[in-house]
């Protein structure tokens, strides 16, 4: 980058102790519009001293924030959800510019995070302990759900609004302080959300932000003052984070890669099913950990391939901010090259390329964008690269099965367990599927079964490391320590004598 260009674009600040500060690093990365290659901003790779300062700020703030009344904490998030609603359009525009997804999908990204903020505002009901009166003679037992201390979050590029909002609102609402490391590929909308959080009343030091790559991730995993780490991203990085942070004695939750299958039975409503598959496979250019990437057509449904291809052909590829766009770009040139390489391998390994989305016809500056159109393979079998790997692009693999049992066996043999779905009008088939499938999140005629925040995100098997998932009831347990208290109060004139047994009498 030339010096003149470097001064022409804004720089992304760090947030330390309530102040937005310019990093002193010498290492910067461009934030690039994936549709046009326009450089939007520069993001710093924070120095070790800056990371340490952010953690120290959070540690100091914890001393007072943990004592803040729960109602006061709840009111911060009532204000925060209002601010997010008021700024929805501008947040979505920023998200689309740096990430590429359509404006409608960007608003959905923000909205699904907003739902968690609303849930955080209900912390008074969520963080209640339990009490049992007179469990023994004059003895009461009760529990307190107390915050852990400084927590950290590491978030991916594909949901730069929703996933940060999965993390820091619930951590802070439960009385912890937080250090957030957004994706260095698209941190701008995250920083806008952080500014609104401060405006809503989050005190200095309670929320801090550092940017960076592997060095910063490792620092968050290693630092002794960080008590818990939440991660969403690739399996490779998530596995590293889980083992490194666990070795440092931290609680860790890692939501990682996936290969989500959808079974289509011949009794399914055809039009609704085809629409659902196209939307779930190609929306967000396939860059969702809950995208449908494999459709298993059972029995007579195997004849639906031409209609599915025709449906996919109707989707418009283009910039996310253009009217009528259905499929935007993938995040980077490297991502596009990887997707195209896997398409080549699919052809070489014998899958039938029913629809080729490589090098879509686009005009003007969009020719420089990272575009891959909807792509469909049929005849896909386990063992093929396009089946075994998470493509993370707009590529749908179609496999076939004679029976539902055969389809279930294929899904259960796959190591991943993030999400799955079945399309059927048979209640008996749906019940059999939900009972026998070994996947954490199940959709019945719902292609992307991400639960609302009343429930927890429950990916399983190779898609998850750690016992407790993000948001919902599980995340309250993740971000708190249960303290159990057993109490007895004596009258002044009562003596029980010496008791040398373990029983309470």
Strand order of the largest sheet: 14-15-16-13-12-18-19
**Based on DSSP secondary structure assignment, what is the total number of beta strands?**
22
SS content category: alpha/beta
Assembly state:
single chain
Poorly predicted spans: 1-6
Please bin the fraction of helical residues. Answer: 25-40%
Label the overall shape.
Answer: globular
The averaged pLDDT comes out at 96
Beta-strand residue percentage:
15-25%
Largest sheet: 7 strands, mixed
Number of helical elements: 17
Q: How far apart, in Å, are the first and last alpha carbons?
A: 76 Å
Radius of gyration: 25 Å
Protein name: methylmalonate-semialdehyde dehydrogenase (CoA acylating)
Keywords: NAD, Oxidoreductase
GO molecular function: oxidoreductase activity
Domain Aldehyde dehydrogenase: 20-485
């Amino acid at each position: 980058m030339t010096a003149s260009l470097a001064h022409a674009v804004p720089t992304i600040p760090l947030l330390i102790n309530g102040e937005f500060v310019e990093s002193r690093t010498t290492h910067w990365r461009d934030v690039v519009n994936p549709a046009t290659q326009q450089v939007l901003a520069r993001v710093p790779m924070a120095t070790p001293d800056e990371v340490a300062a952010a953690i120290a700020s959070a540690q100091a703030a914890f001393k007072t924030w943990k004592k803040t009344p729960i109602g006061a904490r709840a009111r911060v998030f009532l204000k925060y959800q209002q601010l997010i609603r008021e700024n929805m359009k501008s947040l979505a525009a920023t998200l689309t510019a740096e990430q590429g997804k359509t404006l409608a999908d960007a608003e959905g990204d923000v909205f699904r995070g907003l739902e968690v903020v609303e849930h955080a505002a209900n912390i008074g009901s969520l963080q209640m302990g339990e009490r049992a009166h007179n469990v023994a003679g004059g003895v009461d037992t009760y529990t307190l759900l107390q915050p852990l201390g400084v927590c950290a979050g590491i978030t991916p590029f594909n949901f730069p609004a929703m996933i940060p909002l999965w993390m820091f609102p619930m951590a802070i609402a439960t009385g912890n302080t937080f250090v957030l490391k957004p994706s260095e590929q698209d941190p701008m909308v995250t920083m806008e959300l952080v500014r609104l959080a401060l405006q809503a009343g989050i005190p200095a030091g309670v929320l801090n932000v550092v940017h960076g790559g592997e060095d910063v991730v490792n620092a968050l995993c290693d630092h002794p003052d960080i008590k818990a780490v939440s991660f969403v991203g690739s399996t490779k990085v998530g596995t590293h984070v889980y083992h490194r942070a666990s070795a440092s004695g931290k609680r860790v939750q890692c939501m990682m890669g996936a290969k989500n299958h959808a079974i289509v039975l011949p009794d399914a409503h055809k039009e609704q099913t085809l629409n659902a598959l196209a939307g779930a496979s190609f929306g967000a250019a396939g860059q969702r950990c809950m995208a449908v990437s494999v459709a298993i057509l059972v029995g007579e449904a195997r004849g639906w391939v031409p209609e599915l291809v025709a449906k996919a052909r109707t989707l418009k590829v283009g910039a996310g901010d253009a009217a009528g766009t259905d499929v935007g770009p993938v995040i980077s040139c490297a991502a596009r090259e990887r997707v195209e390489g896997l398409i080549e391998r699919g052809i070489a390994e014998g899958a039938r390329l029913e629809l080729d989305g490589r090098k879509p016809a686009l005009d003007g500056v969009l020719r420089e964008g990272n575009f891959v159109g909807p792509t469909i393979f049929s005849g896909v079998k386990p063992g093929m690269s396009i089946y075994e790997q998470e493509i993370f692009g707009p590529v749908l693999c179609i496999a076939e099965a004679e029976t539902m049992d055969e389809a279930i066996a294929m899904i259960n043999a796959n190591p991943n367990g993030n999400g799955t779905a079945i399309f059927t009008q048979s209640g008996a088939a749906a019940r059999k599927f939900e009972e026998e499938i070994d996947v954490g999140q199940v959709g019945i005629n719902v292609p992307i079964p991400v639960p609302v925040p009343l429930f927890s995100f429950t990916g399983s098997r190779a898609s998850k490391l750690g016992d407790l998932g993000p948001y919902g009831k599980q995340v309250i347990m993740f971000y708190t320590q249960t303290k159990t208290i057993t109490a007895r109060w004596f009258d002044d004139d009562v003596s029980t004598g010496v008791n040398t047994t373990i029983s309470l009498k």
